[in-house]
UniProtKB/TrEMBL annotation:
This is DNA-binding transcriptional regulator, MocR family, contains an aminotransferase domain. The keyword Metal-binding does not apply. One of its GO terms (molecular function) is pyridoxal phosphate binding. PANTHER family: HTH-TYPE TRANSCRIPTIONAL REGULATORY PROTEIN GABR (PTHR46577). It comes from Allokutzneria albata (Kibdelosporangium albatum). Residues 29-97 form the HTH gntR-type domain.
Length: 481
C-alpha cells in the first residue's frame, strides 16, 4: 500500500522491541501472527501514534532475534489491515486502522458485544438523572448572560472549596477552577508551565493518558518505579535533584493502576522534597472519593496541605459520578489559578454551564450519592477478587483500599499475550505495559470492577479460558492476597 509520507518520528528497532515486550509464545508457534497482533495493540492503544515511521525490516528482525521472512509476513498482515503503509525508498509507517472491528487490540469504542474490561470508568449513579432535572429547572437563571466562564460558575467552585476545607486544606473559591475533567487540568498545567523537551516526573506504572498528554506536549516523561507497597521516595528525591523536572505528576490516592495510597508521613516527606527542589506538581485526585474502606474525610490530608505553593490538585466527577459529564476541577494558589484561567481561552472558552449546574447538584448531595456508590464498588471488588481466585488461581491479586481496579500479578510476563487472547474471546483488556512509561510490566494486568455483576462474571469466565489457553500458563502457587 502507498500513501503520503508521514511527518511522525521514527522508532528504532531496539526501542520497538522494548515496547513489544514478551509478545511471543514460548513454543514459538504462530510467531508472525502474534507479532502482527502485538504491534496492533501498540498502534491501537496509542503508544505508537499514527504517522510513526517503523524500523527497516532487517533492523527489526535483528532487534527481535527473528527471521526477516517472519517480519515481512507480519508487516504484510498489517498492510492488509490498513494499519501500515509502505513506499519503496521511504520505508513503512503507521496509518489509520482499517474499518474491521479489532478483537485483539484496544479501542475507545468496543463493539457492543465485546465486554469492556479496558476502562475503569463506572456507569452513572441513579441520582444523576434527578440532578439533571433539577439543573434544567435552574438553567433559566443563567440564560440572561453570555455564559462564558473561564473559571467556572461560583456555586460548584464554592462546594469544591468547602470539600477541600473539610479534607483538611482550607480553600476559598478563588483557589478553584472548573475544568472539563482532570485530564484537562493536566493539559492546562502542561501548556502553562512545560515547554518542548522539558522533563516531567511520573510514577511507573501510572495513568497512561497522563503520559500521552505529557508526550503530546512534546515533554519527556521521566519515570520513577513504584515499590510494591508504596512510593520509593529516595528515588523520587534523587530524580528531583538529578533530572530537575519542570513538573511532577502523582496519583497519591488509589493510584491508577496499583491502587496504592500514599501515607500522611510520606506526603509530608514528598512535599518537603518538592518545596526544596521548587518543582510544580500536579496531583491527580480523580479517585480520592472512592475510598472503599472508610470515609474519605478520615484519609490522609491532600498533598497540597503540605506544599500549598507547589501543588495543583486536579479533581474529577468522572469516577465519583460519571465520565460523560466531562466535569473536573483544579485547586491551586489563587494567583496560579488566575494565570491558568487567563491562559485557557486559546484552548477552550470555559466549561459547559449546564453540566456545571448538574455537578453542583451532585456535589450538594454529598454522601447521599457517594456512600452507596462506595459500598457498591466495595462489593464488586470482592466479587472480582473471588472470581479471579476461582478462574485464575495462579495470579496474585492484592485488594486495594479504594479506586476501581485490581492490579493483577500474573506470575509470568504474559500480559500482552493475554490481552490478545482475551480479545479473541470477546473481552477488551489492557496489558500491564500500557501503564509503563517506557514499556515493560508484562507480568501485570489491570482489571476494573466497574461493570455490573453479570458482565463482570462473564468477562472473568472468558479471561480464565483465555489464560488456560495460553501455551505456557504460570505454575500454580500464588494465592489471592
Ligand atoms: C488517575 C486518573 N486520572 C484521570 C482520569 C481521567 O479523568 P477525567 O475523565 O476527569 O479527565 C482517569 C480516568 O481513568 C484516571 O484514572
Amino acid at each position: 500500500m502507498t500513501s503520503s509520507l508521514p511527518a511522525g518520528s521514527r522508532i528504532s528497532g531496539p526501542r520497538l522491541a522494548a515496547f513489544l515486550g514478551s509478545w511471543r509464545r514460548p513454543d514459538g508457534r504462530g510467531a508472525a501472527v502474534d507479532l502482527a497482533a502485538a504491534l496492533r495493540v501498540l498502534f491501537l492503544d496509542g503508544r505508537l501514534p499514527v504517522g510513526t515511521r517503523l524500523p527497516a525490516e532487517r533492523e527489526l528482525a535483528e532487534a527481535l532475534g527473528v527471521s526477516r521472512t517472519m517480519i515481512t509476513s507480519a508487516m504484510d498482515a498489517l498492510r492488509e489491515a490498513g494499519m501500515v503503509a509502505s513506499r519503496r525508498g521511504a520505508g513503512s509507517w503507521i496509518t489509520v486502522p482499517g474499518k474491521e472491528p479489532d478483537r485483539t487490540g484496544w479501542s475507545l469504542h468496543p463493539p457492543s458485544e465485546i465486554i469492556d474490561m479496558a476502562h475503569a470508568s463506572p456507569f452513572a449513579p441513579p441520582e444523576l438523572a434527578a440532578a439533571v432535572d433539577r439543573a434544567r429547572l435552574r438553567l433559566p437563571e443563567l440564560l440572561n448572560s453570555h455564559g462564558y466562564q473561564s473559571f467556572g460558575l461560583p456555586e460548584p467552585r464554592e462546594l469544591i472549596a468547602r470539600r477541600y476545607t473539610e479534607r483538611g486544606l482550607p480553600t476559598t473559591p478563588d483557589q478553584v477552577m472548573i475544568t472539563n475533567g482532570s485530564q484537562h487540568a493536566l493539559t492546562l498545567a502542561l501548556r502553562l508551565h512545560v515547554g518542548p523537551g522539558q522533563r516531567v516526573l511520573v510514577d511507573n506504572p501510572t495513568y497512561p493518558t497522563a503520559v500521552d498528554g505529557i508526550r503530546a506536549a512534546h515533554a519527556l516523561p521521566v519515570a520513577v518505579a513504584l515499590d510494591p507497597d508504596g512510593w520509593d521516595l529516595d528515588s523520587v528525591e534523587a530524580t528531583l535533584r538529578q533530572a530537575a523536572p519542570r513538573l511532577a505528576y502523582f496519583v497519591v490516592d488509589f493510584q491508577n493502576p496499583t491502587g496504592l495510597r500514599m501515607s500522611a508521613p510520606d506526603r509530608e516527606r514528598l512535599a518537603h522534597a518538592l518545596r526544596r527542589s521548587r518543582t510544580l506538581t500536579l496531583v491527580d485526585e480523580t479517585l480520592v472519593e472512592l475510598d472503599l474502606e472508610g470515609d474519605p474525610l478520615d484519609g490522609p490530608p491532600p498533598l497540597s496541605a503540605f506544599a500549598e505553593d507547589w501543588v495543583i490538585a486536579a479533581g474529577s466527577a468522572s469516577k465519583a459520578y460519571w465520565g460523560g459529564l466531562r466535569m473536573g476541577w483544579l485547586r491551586a494558589p489563587a494567583e496560579l489559578v488566575h494565570r491558568l484561567g487567563e491562559s485557557r481561552p486559546s484552548m477552550d472558552l470555559g466549561s459547559p454551564v449546564f453540566e456545571q449546574l448538574v455537578l453542583a447538584e451532585l456535589l450538594a448531595e454529598g454522601d447521599d450519592v457517594l456512600a452507596p456508590r462506595r459500598r457498591e464498588f466495595a462489593r464488586r471488588r470482592e466479587l472480582l477478587v473471588d472470581l479471579l481466585a476461582q478462574h485464575c488461581p495462579e495470579w496474585t491479586v492484592k485488594r486495594p483500599s479504594g479506586g476501581l481496579n485490581l492490579w493483577c500479578d500474573l506470575g509470568k510476563p504474559l500480559s500482552t499475550q493475554l490481552a490478545m487472547a482475551v480479545g479473541r474471546h470477546g473481552v477488551q483488556a489492557v496489558p500491564g505495559s500500557r501503564f509503563a512509561a517506557h514499556g515493560g510490566l508484562e507480568q501485570w494486568m489491570r482489571l476494573p470492577y466497574t461493570l455490573p455483576d453479570d458482565q463482570l462474571t462473564e468477562a472473568v469466565l472468558r479471561i480464565g479460558a483465555a489464560w488456560r489457553g495460553l501455551a505456557d500458563p504460570a505454575p500454580p502457587g500464588h494465592g489471592i492476597a
